[in-house]
Design goal:
The protein has 347 residues and is an alpha/beta fold. Helix content is 36%, strand content 13%. The strands form two sheets. The protein has a seven-stranded parallel beta sheet. It has a four-stranded parallel beta sheet with strand order 9-10-8-11. The longest helix has 18 residues.
């Protein structure tokens, strides 16, 4: 979700490389604890979107930030949120909404990592599949609440989450959150429960007309930070494809695709890979096949309970598996660029 940490000798494209020479986060006039947290987390120089958006966000402006996945948008709103928090108050001041539980967990991880030097900071994630009693306890002191729209709405309805002190609302993957027929009604309800005088950030890799229309109902003369309105692909990304024969029997098509995928894995050096499948049953079967062929794989889908899903993500992050087979559950989830990402539709 955040811009990749710098490594010695790593080539950086102009998507994340600041033009005009080196700079640092110190030029953005952030508070010392936030600057120290950024440095500790490996964020040494701001990417173009961070350089443009963070100062505007710190001024209290409503922002629409549209930039490619992998260019550091999560760091943008995490930094703005952390710089705005009043640690003396236990009230929830920042509310961040994400379209999936996994993205919410990742946002929480980024915020707590950057906020490590802020003594007393309380940031918690609220998602379905976890005990409400646990959420209620955490909300007794929670500066930053990150969650999925369904659980956040429920917590407000139960009066576990007080919105009276919320000063900043962030919509991550705003195009997904405000898509017709998805989370739009829940987001509308949550928005209406918040104080009138609040700042709002909408972050997205794309900016379709439907999103523009939806945001006019929320934002007051928003400032746009748009870095790639016509080209959403990261520079330097290599793409491979293989034409697969059509078979009358679906399982034959699956077998051929699986064989091509194994060949691709054998020929292209990679650390870890993400493979998408449109059926849970096929995803699980593919994970078993790849594991038996020497490519340790895990499966993740909406059919799994929250504990199983988080366990699969943890195994990937801890390098206990090389391949994650996923349904569209994590289709908008952004991994570090060290991953080889492969799209494989399994029918």
């Amino acid at each position: 979700m955040a811009a990749p940490m710098e490594a010695a000798g790593r080539f950086r494209t102009r998507d994340v490389l600041l033009p005009g020479g080196p700079s640092d986060f110190g030029s953005l006039l952030l508070s010392p604890p936030v600057l120290a947290g950024l440095e500790a987390a490996g964020f040494h120089r701001p990417s173009p979107v961070q350089l443009k958006a963070i100062p505007l966000g710190r001024c209290g402006l409503d922002l629409i930030v549209q930039a490619k996945s992998g260019t550091g948008k999560t760091c943008v709103f995490a930094t703005i949120a952390l710089d705005a928090v009043l640690l003396d108050s236990p009230a929830t001041q920042i509310l961040i909404l994400a379209p999936t539980r996994e993205i919410a967990v990742q946002i929480h991880a980024v915020i707590t990592t950057i906020g490590i030097k802020m003594e007393g900071l309380e940031c918690h994630v609220f998602i379905g599949g976890t005990p409400l009693s646990q959420d209620r306890s955490r909300l007794k002191k929670c500066h930053i609440a990150v969650g999925s729209p369904g659980r956040i709405k429920q917590l407000i309805e139960l009066e576990y989450l007080s919105t009276a002190s919320v000063r900043l609302l962030v919509l991550d993957e705003a195009d997904k959150l405000l898509e017709e027929g998805s989370f739009q009604e829940q987001v509308n309800w949550i928005y209406s429960s918040l104080p009138v005088n609040k700042q709002m950030l909408a972050v997205s890799a794309t900016y379709p007309e439907s999103l523009a229309a939806a945001l006019t109902r929320y934002m007051r003369e928003p400032t746009f930070v748009r870095l790639n309105p016509t080209d959403p692909s990261l520079l330097g990304l290599k793409q491979y494809y293989k034409i697969v024969n059509s078979h009358p029997l679906p399982h034959k098509t699956f077998e051929e695709k699986t064989q091509h995928l194994q060949e691709l894995f054998s020929k292209i050096p990679f650390n870890q890979a993400l493979v998408f499948s449109n059926l849970h049953s096929r995803a699980q079967h593919l994970a078993e096949i790849l594991t038996s062929r020497g490519f340790p794989a895990e499966c993740i889908s909406g059919n799994m309970n929250q504990s199983q899903r988080l366990d699969a993500m943890a195994k990937l992050k801890q390098f206990h598996c090389r391949v994650l087979i996923s349904t569209d559950l994590v289709s908008c989830y952004c991994f570090q660029t060290s991953f080889l990402q492969i799209l494989l539709q399994i029918y």
